Amino acid sequence: MNQTENVNQVSPLSVDDLTVAYHRKPVIWDVAFDLPEGQLIGVVGPNGAGKSTLLKAIMDLIPRASGRVRVFGDTYRNNRHRVGYVPQRESVDWQFPVNALDVVTMGLYDEIGWCLPVRRKHRQRAMEALDRVGIADLAQRQISQLSGGQQQRTFLARALVQDADLYLMDEPFAAVDAATELAIVDILRELKKRKKTAVVIHHDLQTVPDYFDHVVLLNMRIVACGPVETTFTAENLNKTYGGRLTLLDEVNEAMRRRETSL
Amino acid sequence: MRDYNTRVVVLGVAMLGGSSGLVGSFTLLRRRALMGDALSHASLPGIALAFMLATTLGYDGKYLPLLLAGATFSGLLGVGCILWIRNKTRLKEDTALGIVLSVFFGAGVALLGMVQQMKTGNAAGLEGFIYGKTASMSAMDVRLIFYASLIAIALSFANFKELKLLCFDEGFAGSRGYPVVLLDVLLMSLVVLVAMVGLQAVGLILMIALLVIPAAAARFWTDTLWKMTAYSVILGTVGCVIGAMVSAVFPNLPSGAMIVLVCSFFFFLSMFFGTARGVVARFLRRRRLNRRIDRQHLMRAMYEQIEHPDRSDTSALKPGSEPVRKTKVSIDELLLVRSWNWKRLMAAIRSAEVDELMQYRHGHAQLTHAGFIEAARLTRQHRLWEMYLITYADVAPALVDRDADNIEHVLEPHVIDRLEDLLEEQELLFPVPTSPHELGDGLTSSEEGILP
Amino acid sequence: MIFLLGDWISDWDGSINGWIVVIGCLCAASASLLGNFLVLRRMSMLGDAITHAVLPGIAAAFFISGTRNSMAMFVGAVIVGLLTAVFTEWIRSVGKVDEGASMGVVFTSLFALGLVMLVAAADHVDLDPKCVLYGAIDLTPLDTVWVRGLEIPRAAIVLSIVLVLNLAFVILFFKELKISSFDPALATTMGFSAKAMHYLLMVLVSITAVASFESVGSILVVAMFVVPAAAAYMLTDRLAVMIFFSVIIAVASASLGHIAALEVPTWFGFRSTTTAGPMAVVSGLLFLLAALFGPRYGVVVKWVRRQSLSWRILCDDIVAILYRAEERDTAMPGLAGLADELFASSLSIRSALLMLRRKGEIEGSDQPKLTPRGIDRARELVRSHRLWEQYLVVETGAETNRIHSHAERWEHFTDRPLRDELDRVTEAPDIDPHGSPIPPENKL
User: Which ranges carry the Iron dependent repressor metal binding and dimerisation domain (chain C) (predicted)?
Assistant: First the structure.
């Protein structure tokens, strides 16, 4: 369990024995996993399974009852600069008087440092990030004027510009249009090419095998964790989502439809 | 208390404290605690205008009902402005309050500057309307407060469930066809009503305090709205009575300020010792939870260690092999099982030792008989919960309450039966040894669980 | 220039009034600079809370120093002002109480405490709470100091320092303020402690509040913390621009406010009134203007925009109906027929027709008939409508009887490039799903 530190390749994110509880109720318990580097990792599980809680507990945003989190072999605090976080869209006030470019530039603030102004080259880089997510033409738009998908892309660009090694994304695919979904997937693949690791909370089972290499099935506890081919099985899904839901049938149906439509 | 004047004051502030506690609990839950602040300030131009108008027309400018009418009018105008800004512009609630407060008050100050130049009518003391004169409250003031309180109580009781819905979930109330804006206006009119009679009797700051503090204090004691309202009324009344009496005993101390201080003393008491949301209560709850989790982790770790006679192989379970209670488990082994540090593990062991669940000697821990039973019970329960999560994954997260003393208390018997069957299939179920003291009647659950 | 206004305002004494305006502007500008962040962080009531809460600081300073030394009182007041923010935040986070409520608890308690302390001190010295709370801007020019041979009001110097301080703060920490107000969690994960920024802001808010109300009275600074920033927020979507606007609005309210204080009361036969009040009122009026006529978010502007859109849609619908009638070769619908079909009052139909006629898109008064220009417009619309229907059927497999309402809405927002795109995607059909011909694109 603890050998990772002795091995040469340090896991970008290793969680050990993590338990988080609100009031009397445990939200996640005894969660433990080591994630491989340079992979796209999907975290899936039913509503209330504690997916967002897991990310927040990893980043010390909420207190944990027990457990240890290692980011590249060190505490989160010490390796904060190597982590990029894409929060859920509802977490900020979209009426705030900033435009998309400003929001993306925020990802560079720690690099710029205290009191120093944002310079042209930073804006340039923010612009490139916006270009990568495909909304460079909306850079000057106030953020409330963006559609849900465009807001999500803005957040993604902000994380990209941070140039982290590990990305934690909380439901980036929630309520976005198809074009945005494709754009996000493109970006994820590109991140993978550059040996970055992305941990993505995801709610759409159908697309898991397409989007991710590695999957963490979570339902308050880890049901399974491993490569998609071996882990994302009907049996494990059944354990995660329960047999009564016909979701599995739906997935099969959807896959069948896709195959026939191609 | 013998003094007639003191009695009048005590009676007046007691009623005022009660009714503002009542109204305040709604505004607090509506996240508009400072509404009273804004509306009290907003009454100033109305007072000045009423005075000017009356004096110009040749009446007595300081005729109380007239001033009150003026104050109420501009207070309601302020309410309208706040609602308009909140609903029609992109600005948030607090900014709406801030704008109305400062602009109306500014207008009031400007008008007062003009009033003071009027030759007819004596404007002196008009500001006292805002700053209050608690100690010299008159019987007339008390009567006014009485009527206002009656109205406020009647209205809030008549509309209790509508107001509750408004405070709890405005969107839902709207979707169910409740006239949200009208209810909002009703609530704010209650604030205006109480604030206006209170304002001239006890002053601006005390009025704001009475609208905010008792309700905020009551919030720490309960999570039920009607109880919170009741506590808020009681706290407001008691705070006012004590404050007024203190200042009667020490005539040097201004009564308004004393009432505020007594109320805020109550607030801090509640904040720390409130049973529902108080700081101490929450801290204790959190600590108890953490300790309990540590205890459970420890007992389970112990059980799992002694479950395998061959302890080098921790991955495979050896079904059928009876766990040996007296097996000594070294602390190093325990440290490896979980992510706890030495200090935390030792704390858990000590507390288990105090409860006579285990013995710890020379770096090795050993379960007592009671500890063995407890460890087995916890482990079994844990496995049942895990199995439950897997089997009933779709409904599980809402129901899982791993901390409940017994899984049997939460889940239906037939569900547990099924879970036990499933565990048995995987050879993970084991009998929980019964306590020797309960041999007669405690067999049920363990009998069922005996392995083949 | 302000020194010359005396020509047309009766009560104008050049130097005194000039200084009042200057001091008012200084106070307004410094408060509004910080006010932007108070408004954005939903702490608009803090200015009001601090001006009430500082009383015990003043009393304590008096107890400790034993004099009415203004420096000691200033320091005491700033410390308690900061404590107000600290306590508010502490009660909010530790007690899990809503921000407004915790602010209300803190400032009323502190004010009461200060009052009791002052009463206790009253045996020794006369310290009138009203006097403490009401510095009067009208009297500031009388309290002067000599600087390099110039007689300058003390308040002007103090407030200039505050203004420079605030300006430096906002410029230096612009991006830290921005990120910690917008997304505190991100700021903290990036190493800009949102808490540190919060308290730094609070220190300056207390300094500004105390410096201002001690010299010019509380009402002005409370108003200037909120109103100009709120007005600027209605005007723009850029933070830097918003700050700039708020300062302009603040300065304008202070100047106009003073003029109003001198002028308006005379209309009703009074002499001039206290200046701070009208300054606040003018800022309120400016806010009202911004809220009504702000270019994007103004209430009136939004209303007009909505109205003109529904107006355009009505006109669109009329020409489309006329076009279809012509196409089917049925009788042209009259006024009543149009009103019936469009669920509109005959008055709005009549005015829409009037407008169309003036644009030269229809002719004939009783029996409207499309002109060539009108036919062009109608053809675009009908083409969009039918292309959309085709698209819906082809691409989404929608049933033919359910597509009309969608197309009816979208046709008004479909321009030439979008139409071409639709045409391409649907492989340039000639007829729509209902069997009606899709008219060709207009020739340019």
Answer: 371-439
CATH at residue C343: 1.10.10.10
pLDDT at C15 over 80: no
Which residue from A59, A61, A106 is facing C179, i.e. has the nearest CB?
Answer: A106
Residue B119 predicted with pLDDT over 60: yes
* 8 Å CB contact of A110 and C176: no
Residue C367 in any domain: the answer is yes
pLDDT of B123 above 80: no
Structural domain harbouring C153:
2-293
Q: Distance (Å) from the C-alpha of residue C250 to the closest C-alpha of chain B?
A: 13
Q: What is the pLDDT of residues B287-336, one digit of tens each?
A: 888 888 888 888 888 888 877 655 444 444 444 456 677 777 888 888 87
Sorted by sequence, the CB contacts under 8 Å of residue A106 that are 6+ apart come out as A158, C175, C178, C179, C182, C183, C186
- Name the amino acid, one letter, at A129: A
> Are C277 and B109 within 8 A, CB to CB?
yes
- The domain total for chain A is 1
Tokens of B79: 């309410």
Point out the residue among B338, B390, B398 whose CB comes nearest to the CB of A17: B338
For residue C362, what is the enclosing H or E element? strand C362-363
Reported as a pLDDT band with limits 50, 70 and 90, residue A41 is very high
The reply to whether C341 touches chain A by the CB within 8 Å rule is no
> CA torsion A201→A204→A208→A209, rounded to 10°?
180
Asked if the B283-448 domain carries CATH number 1.10.533, the reply is no
Residue written as token pair 């009463």: C119
In chain A, residues with a C-beta closer than 8 Å to the C-beta of B396 are 219-220, 242
User: CB within 8 A of C354, min separation 6: which ones?
Assistant: none
Alpha carbon separation from C209 to B379, C34, C251 (Å, rounded)? 61, 10, 17
- Asked whether the beta carbons of C216 and C138 are under 8 A apart, the reply is no
Nearest C-alpha in C relative to B256: C112
The answer to whether residue C245 sits within a structural domain is: yes
**C-proximal residues of B, 254-283, CB under 8 Å:** 254, 256-261, 264, 267, 271, 277, 279
CB of A114 within 8 Å of a chain C CB? The answer is yes
User: Which chains form contacts with chain C, at 3 or more CB pairs under 8 Å?
Assistant: A, B
Predicted pLDDT of residue A80: 82
- Contact assessment for residue A136 and residue A127, using Cβ atoms and an 8 Å cutoff: yes
Cα separation, B324 vs B306, in Å, equals 6
Tell me which chain C residues have a C-beta less than 8 angstroms from the C-beta of B254.
Answer: 115-116, 119
Helices then strands (H, E): number in chain C? 19, 4
Mean pLDDT of chain C: 83
**Same domain membership, residue C277 and residue C317:** no
Q: Which amino acid is at C418?
A: L
CA of B388 to nearest chain A CA: how many angstroms apart?
10
Buried b (16+ CB within 10 A) or exposed e, B120-147: ebebeebbebbbbbbbebeeebbebbbe
Which pLDDT score, from 0 to 100, does residue B121 have?
A: 57
Both tokens of residue C239? Answer: 């933070």
Helix orientation angle between C218-233 and C239-267, rounded to the nearest 10 degrees: 130
Interface contact C173, partner A, CB < 8 A = yes
- CATH number assigned to the domain with residue range B4-275, chosen from the 4 options 1.10.760.10, 3.20.20.10, 2.60.40.10, 1.10.3470.10: 1.10.3470.10
Q: What is the ipTM of this complex?
A: 0.86
pLDDT value at position C359? 84
Flag whether residue C111 sits within 8 Å of chain A, measured between CB atoms: no
| Total residues belonging to chain B | 452
A22 at C interface, C-beta within 8 A: no
Do C328 and C252 lie in one domain? The reply is no
Question: Does the distance separating the beta carbons of A61 and C173 come in below 8 Å?
Answer: no
Measured between beta carbons, the chain B residues lying within 8 angstroms of A46 are 393-394, 397
Give the SS3 label for residue A218.
strand
